Amino acid sequence: MNTTFRALMGACALAALATGATSETITVATVNNGDMIRMQGLMDDFYAKHPDIEVEWVTLEENVLRQRVTQDVATKGGQFDVMTIGTYEVPIWGERGWLVSLNDLPESYDVDDLLPAIRDGLTVDGELYAAPFYGESSMVMYRTDLMEKAGLEMPDAPTWAFIKEAAAAMTDKDNEVYGICLRGKAGWGENMAFLSAMANSYGAKWFDMDWKPQFDSEAWANTLNDYLELMNNYGPPGASGNGFNENLALFQTGKCGMWIDATVAASFVTNPNDSQVADSVGFAQAPDNGLGPRGNWLWAWNLGIPAGTQKVDAAKAFVEWATSKDYTELVASKEGWANVPPGTRQSLYENPEYQSVPFAKMTLESILSADPKNPTVDEVPYVGVQFVAIPEFQGIGTAVGQQFSAALAGQMSAEQALDNAQKLTEREMMKAGYIK
Amino acid sequence: MARSVSTRRKLITTVFAWAIGIAIFFPILWTILTSFKTEAAAIADPPVWFNFHWTLDNYATVQERSNYFRHFMNSVIISGGSTLLGLIIAVPAAWSMAFVPAKRTKDVLMWMLSTKMLPPVGVLVPIYLLFRDLGLLDTRIGLVIVLTLINLPIIVWMLYTYFKEIPGEILEAARMDGASLRSEIIHVLTPMAIPGMASTVLLNIILAWNEAFWTLNLTAAKAAPLTAFIASYSSPEGLFYAKLSAASTMAIAPILIMGWFSQKQLVRGLTFGAVK
Questions:
Q1: B224 contacts in chain A (CB < 8 Å)
Q2: Which residues pair with A31 in a beta bridge?
Q3: Which CATH number goes with the domain that contains B91?
Q4: Is residue B241, in this structure, part of any structural domain at all?
Q5: What H or E segment, with its residue span, contains residue A179?
Q6: Do B132 and A262 lie within an 8 Å CB cutoff?
Q7: Domains with residue ranges and CATH for chain A
Q8: Any signal peptide, and if so, which residues (chain B) (predicted)?
Q9: Which of A197, A415, A420, B20 has its CA 20 to 30 A from that of A150?
Q10: Which contiguous run of DSSP H or E holds residue A40?
Q11: Would the pTM of this model clear 0.90, i.e. be above it?
Q12: Per-block average pLDDT, block size 10, for chain A (436 residues)?
């Protein structure tokens, strides 16, 4: 009896130890945006499904996060088990073997439901290296009341010529209403995201098939001249310092007739709690010039697992949960369909309830019209719509962005800015060994 | 003979001093005011000063979303620990340089200061790799060490300056009375240098509390102090200025209160020996 009791106690102790040993804590690095913060509030569902996994969050501003996770993944620092990364990082890191492949996600995950444009950007040599949490493109957001007052009607797919005409008609500088608000702040993810996408619709490109920079082309000159003309004549003052947030504030306070920016802004500008113009906002696709590509970008925030983590299974369980169809329904049931992370799954856009969200259709059309593998008119050697997926791009993109921002501020001419951009890009590409 | 100062001049000086004071304090005041606004009021144009709907919602949201107390404790331990460790190293170093100077003491002091001239990002990768190999990433002890090393030149310089003001004869007298080196530093030198040491401690705590390069780069979830807490509310896609302001106010409140109560010592220490 005594021996049996002792054996039972021993077994219990072992079981307790084993339970403790299998409980794992994973650290998730993420950006501070509405969708990610919402997920942190819905973790009870994950814990109910995975009681053996605990999640610790590290929320950082986008640029800080990018630096931190790059540093960690490159040095195998092991500080994070799941990282929120953009479509720029995934192909570069995947190619270097820095990310764990997600090809073995279960069938119930339905990987074929992911939007092809988004999934392609996350796949390298047939291996899916990150799961999309939310996707975005860019589109035109405009004031329906001002458009009506100007006697114009915004088509679903406008041209740049129409945008210029509408901007002129809507501008009323005496009352601080500016026809158009666009990004002007320097940075590869700031003004260059907009200008690279705009350039695609003008037939311009970053590099030709031999990786030679193309800022000396007529297409780039037309792009930059039209951008400067729009902004100088119909844009707000001090636009060279404006990024997403500054333009959002201007639009929400009724100072912009049109704003071309991320589709994610749609939920902000239509929210009556924050926006003074919530009931008079319309949406249209980004403009084109009749050459094929439209001036919209494609971006997704994705969850990837660094190759250095020791907790691959727990990390995969989290990624699978956070990017699943079930999670979408969980958000819809708690916060409404308008708050569901958009732009990743076809099934979401087939859902009749989601179709009633005002900006759903335009967001999907914008995402589907962007092709990261064929971003511009001519064939190019790179992947990426508003970026070039090579490691050197962050530095080059920001340096070129500074030239264009300076041109917008009136510190140099468009010709000078393009000439400087051409020279500095040539220099960097030569240093990196792409061209001789 | 004392100079008589005209009332007009006094008035101008007072107004000028207040204007500078308000200009310096204005960003903090605006942050505090914004923390009580709604997000819509935070971006209102023209800006609203006091006539808005005051709300504590932002503080409630921040409290709900983040573990403020853990970040606060990390800040206290990291800034307090690095200051203590820094003093333990700096007091003997400053004593020897002030009272037993060698031929190259000035050069050593300059060399110490020159380490502050290197941008921290220049040594980020080697330090990160060292921390990774020593298992110090995301630990409070790791940050205590790195912040001690970063602020050590300033502590040594400040203490050296204060110690130089103390007449060497007093220490000599103590030695003649049979005081050991330890007693000389602890019982004779330290009490006389208290104002200077107090301001050094306060300044070092403020520097360590506000340090945002290493604390952001070397921490993740466990050892992240209040600087990481603020950073988590900054967003390039979304106007969350009111919440960011609430987080900032909560992060700076402890150090502001500490500075307010100790301003007498701080000013006394910083002006110690300024007028001979």
A1: 58
A2: A60
A3: 1.10.3720.10
A4: no
A5: strand A178-181
A6: no
A7: 22-129+299-355 (3.40.190.10), 137-297+387-431 (3.40.190.10)
A8: none
A9: A197
A10: helix A34-41
A11: no
A12: 60 51 84 85 94 93 85 88 94 93 94 91 93 93 96 95 97 95 93 96 96 97 97 95 92 95 88 89 94 92 93 96 95 88 90 86 86 91 93 93 96 97 96 91
